[in-house]
């Protein structure tokens, strides 16, 4: 009853005209960003960050979240119609989605993707509603050692789930931690690692960094490939899946929703990992695995449900612990901090209108997305025909405006360019940029917790292992770290066996 | 040469620079951690991991996965975009948002599209449109403060 009462209050907030407008703007931009390859939800959220300073916290939270989950909807359109993923989380949908389109089943593929997304999105909101508040209450007993342990475990899981080399992901994490120390020391007020550059005394702007890493570097990468996209031009019909399609997809949608929700909670998990896991699970449980890759509807329904299921899950660690689980959540974290609101265990109790308003707006946003993605599919097909050559300068323009207008400093433009080049070169050398940005966001929390815990324990590192909660979390972190080494030893053993033979 | 080999050396050098700077700033003790204590720990671990990557690259028979061949022309275009942005960051506070942004966009539209005289006019037209639209939305509607520069525009 308590939840229903709170949800009712949330709908009261969400149905206010300004909140409805920002919800619609968010999901519209999210879908647009999802449809267009080149700029992801993080870049889009970074671009709109300066706007959020001038609107009330609820509107900004509702709009940014709308971009985040709207993006997951829009990504499938490009995957199915063009065979180019709009987002990393829609890569898997290309496999069977495009094959379905080639067989003239673009309508059912888009339809099941949209309906699956809607169902998974709704399930994940219910999960968020049920889990976030109890977890926040439990987190009230956390002290500095527990927070240190949680951040350590989170970063270990982020590196474990990294798509490339774990060693390189760890290097990026440590670089992010170092970058977070640049600027004034919060304990002493002294400048550190500024190397005589005045602009660095205010620390590195997170939005400028994000725009460089995810906006400018994407543009530089896109310059390499100006190939014209072949857009599906036939009339798209049968957007409402048939009874047979529903029967074939119902369990895939359910499994995808659950996988997405739970993997979304994990740091570094999120939409991309869950869509890959969902596809693998669907192929594994299918009676006809040979149909996968040739246009199996479950290969679209599962991953598309999973990437939307992850949206609600990803919000849980942010809103109840103050820990962003992925880079998009880091942007949301940044937006809340700028508004003077600190996400964490007190967030739900201090700002119930914000929390429940956001949840209610997500229900509304999901319905809006269904309308945007089904009847208006023709519009998105037209958007896909805009040549990248026209889009790239505009993306750069948005990056420039976004980076500059946060603090009105030209220095932030230099920061953006630096990280744009770093992101581009880093990708060429096989480094992922998401762990860097996440570590940069979590760095101050980790440093403060470390210093406070060491002061509490008079210099003993055992404090992280002697307290029950922090000890358990540290053990999990160590297990994750050690599990990274298992394949290494396995490979060495195999080499030894081969040598012996 | 293996790309990991190069990048590991780079990160090792970065870690050394941070460690030296940390000692200058003061690391304190475990009982009373100093201002650069956390940075030193991060840089120390960065150094160790970069060495691990170095030896992994050294003893690895495989070369780093090819990231795809990119033509010199593409690199030149990328370098031009970066250089334009750097110049823009310097010029914008002096020339003002409207003039600097118009020039930047004209250049970018020109570089990304076929460089024909007929396209030059279109580039200029698109740039005027995009600059004016961005100014109306961000400066007028959302009250972002852009520099007006010496020309006052």
What is the succession of H and E elements of chain B? HHHHH
Low-confidence stretches of chain B: none
Strand-residue proportion of chain A: under 5%
- Assign a percent range to the helix content of chain B: over 70%
Please report which band the strand proportion of chain B falls in: under 5%, 5-15%, 15-25%, 25-35%, 35-45% or over 45%. Answer: under 5%
**Principal-axis shape of chain A:** globular
Count of alpha/pi helices of chain B: 5
Q: State the end-to-end distance of chain B.
A: 51 Å
Largest sheet of chain A: 2 strands, antiparallel
Summarize this entry quickly.
With 501 residues, chain A is mostly helical.
Explain what you see.
The complex is a heterodimer of chains A (501) and B (153). With 501 residues, chain A is mainly alpha-helical. Chain A has one domain (2-227, 239-500). Chain A has 21 helices and two strands. The longest helix of chain A is centred in the N-terminal third of the chain and has 34 residues, at 106-139. With 153 residues, chain B is mainly α. Chain B folds into two domains: 3-59; 72-141, no CATH class. The mean pLDDT of chain B is 86. At the A-B interface, helix 8, helix 9, helix 17, helix 18 and helix 19 of A face helix 1, helix 2, helix 3, helix 4 and helix 5 of B.
Please describe the topology of this protein.
The complex is a heterodimer of chains A (501) and B (153).
Chain A: H1 2-14, H2 17-35, H3 41-52, H4 57-82, H5 91-102, H6 106-139, H7 144-160, H8 166-181, E1 183-184, E2 191-192, H9 206-223, H10 243-265, H11 270-285, H12 298-321, H13 327-338, H14 347-350, H15 352-373, H16 377-384, H17 388-405, H18 411-428, H19 434-456, H20 463-466, H21 468-500
Antiparallel strand pairs in A: 1-2
Chain B: H1 3-25, H2 37-59, H3 72-95, H4 97-112, H5 117-141
Helix pairs in contact in B: 1-2, 3-4, 4-5
């Amino acid at each position: 009853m308590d939840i229903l009462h709170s949800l009712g209050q949330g709908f009261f907030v969400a149905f206010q005209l300004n909140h409805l407008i920002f919800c619609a703007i968010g999901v519209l931009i999210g879908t647009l960003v999802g449809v267009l390859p080149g700029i992801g939800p993080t870049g889009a959220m970074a671009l709109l960050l300066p706007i959020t300073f001038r609107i009330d916290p609820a509107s900004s939270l509702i709009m940014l979240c709308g971009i985040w989950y709207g993006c997951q909807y829009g990504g499938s359109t490009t995957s199915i119609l063009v065979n180019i993923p709009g987002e990393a989380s829609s890569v898997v949908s290309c496999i069977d989605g495009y094959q379905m389109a080639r067989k003239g089943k673009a309508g059912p593929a888009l339809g099941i993707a949209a309906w699956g997304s809607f169902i998974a999105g709704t399930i994940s909101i219910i999960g968020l509603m049920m889990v976030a508040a109890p977890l926040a209450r439990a987190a009230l007993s956390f002290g500095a050692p527990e927070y240190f342990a949680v951040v350590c475990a989170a970063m270990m899981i982020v590196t474990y789930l990294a798509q490339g080399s774990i060693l390189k992901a760890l290097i990026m994490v440590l670089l992010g931690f170092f970058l977070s120390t640049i600027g004034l020391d919060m304990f002493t007020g002294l400048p550190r690692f500024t190397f005589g550059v005045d602009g660095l005394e205010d620390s590195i702007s997170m939005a400028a960094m994000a725009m460089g890493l995810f906006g400018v570097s994407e543009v530089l990468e896109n310059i390499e490939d100006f190939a014209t996209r072949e857009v599906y031009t036939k009339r798209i019909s049968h957007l409402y899946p048939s009874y047979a399609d529903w029967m074939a997809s119902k369990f895939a949608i359910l499994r995808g929703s659950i996988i997405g929700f739970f993997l979304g909670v994990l740091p570094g998990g999120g939409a991309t990992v869950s869509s890959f896991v969902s596809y693998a699970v669907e192929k594994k449980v299918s009676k006809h695995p040979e149909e996968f890759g040739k246009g199996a509807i479950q290969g679209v329904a599962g991953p598309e449900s999973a990437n939307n299921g992850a949206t609600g899950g990803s919000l849980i660690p942010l809103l109840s612990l103050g820990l962003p689980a992925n880079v998009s959540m880091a942007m949301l974290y940044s937006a809340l901090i700028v508004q003077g609101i600190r996400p964490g265990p007190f967030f739900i109790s201090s700002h119930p209108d914000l929390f429940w308003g956001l949840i209610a707006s997500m229900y509304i946003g999901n319905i809006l997305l269904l309308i945007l993605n089904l009847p208006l599919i023709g519009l998105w097909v037209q958007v896909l025909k805009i040549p990248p050559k026209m889009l790239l300068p505009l993306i750069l323009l948005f990056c420039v405006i976004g980076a500059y207008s946060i603090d009105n400093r030209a220095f932030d433009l230099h920061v953006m360019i630096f990280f744009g080049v770093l992101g581009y070169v880093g990708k060429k050398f096989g480094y992922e940029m998401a762990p860097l940005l996440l570590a940069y966001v979590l760095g101050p929390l980790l440093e403060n917790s470390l210093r406070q815990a060491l002061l509490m324990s008079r210099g003993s590192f055992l404090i992280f292992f002697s307290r029950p909660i922090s000890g358990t979390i540290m053990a999990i972190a160590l297990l994750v770290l050690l599990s990274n080494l298992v394949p290494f030893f396995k490979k060495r053993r195999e080499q030894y066996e081969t040598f012996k033979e | 040469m293996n790309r990991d080999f190069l990048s590991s050396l780079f990160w090792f050098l970065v870690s050394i620079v941070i460690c030296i700077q940390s000692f200058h700033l003061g690391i304190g003790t475990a009982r009373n951690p100093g201002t650069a204590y956390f940075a030193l720990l991060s840089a120390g671990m960065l150094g160790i991991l970069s060495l691990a990557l170095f030896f992994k690259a050294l003893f690895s028979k495989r070369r780093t996965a090819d990231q795809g061949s990119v033509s010199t022309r593409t690199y030149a275009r990328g370098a031009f975009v970066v250089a334009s942005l750097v110049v823009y960051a310097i010029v914008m506070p002096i020339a003002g948002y409207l003039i600097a942004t118009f020039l930047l966009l004209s250049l970018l539209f020109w570089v990304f599209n076929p460089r024909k005289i007929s396209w030059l006019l279109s580039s200029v037209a698109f740039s005027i449109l995009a600059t004016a639209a961005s100014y109306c939305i961000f400066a007028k509607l959302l009250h972002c403060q852009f520099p007006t520069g010496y020309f006052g525009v």
